[in-house]
């Protein structure tokens, strides 16, 4: 079954999908990028467990394959494409997504540290 969200849930998810998809770009993120992503996640009202589930079940299965190919995405994923792709498939982990999550593990740790720093300040 594909992901079914109310308009309010969809509006809440869009910035989360966009923020988390940045972890799968074929570019080096800077500390300022991690701080920005952490603010987006904080402002969404998602708990760390919730956004990690969204990352694992919704974002990584859709964009994770870009890291496994020879020509990755550099500029960012189109928001309309990302939303359509996430909504078109069941929200669950995939093998490709799991491999991609292993590849972004250092970036994920940096994002988690940025999120923790926001809660402390």
Class by SSE composition: mainly alpha
Number of strands: 0
Separation, N- and C-terminal Cα atoms? 40 Å
**Approximately how much beta-strand content do the residues carry?**
under 5%
Element order: H for helix, E for strand: HHHHHHH
Shape annotation: globular
Poorly predicted regions: none
Q: Largest beta sheet, briefly?
A: none
Helix percentage range:
55-70%
Gyration radius over CA: 14 Å
**Overall number of structural domains:** 1
Mean pLDDT: 92
Can you describe what's shown?
- It comes from Deinococcus gobiensis (strain DSM 21396 / JCM 16679 / CGMCC 1.7299 / I-0).
- This is Response regulator receiver domain-containing protein.
- Residues 12-109 form the DUF7079 domain.
- There is one protein chain.
- The protein is mainly α.
- It has one domain.
- The chain has 7 helices and no strands.
- It has helices at 7-21, 31-44, 48-63, 65-68, 79-87, 95-103, 105-120.
- Helix 3 crosses helix 6 (95-103).
- The radius of gyration is 14 Å and the shape is globular.
- 28% of the residues are buried.
- The mean pLDDT is 92.
Short description:
InterPro entries: DUF7079 (IPR055507). This protein is an all-alpha fold.
Topology, element by element:
Blueprint: H1 7-21, H2 31-44, H3 48-63, H4 65-68, H5 79-87, H6 95-103, H7 105-120
Helix pairs in contact: 1-2, 1-3, 2-7, 3-5, 3-6
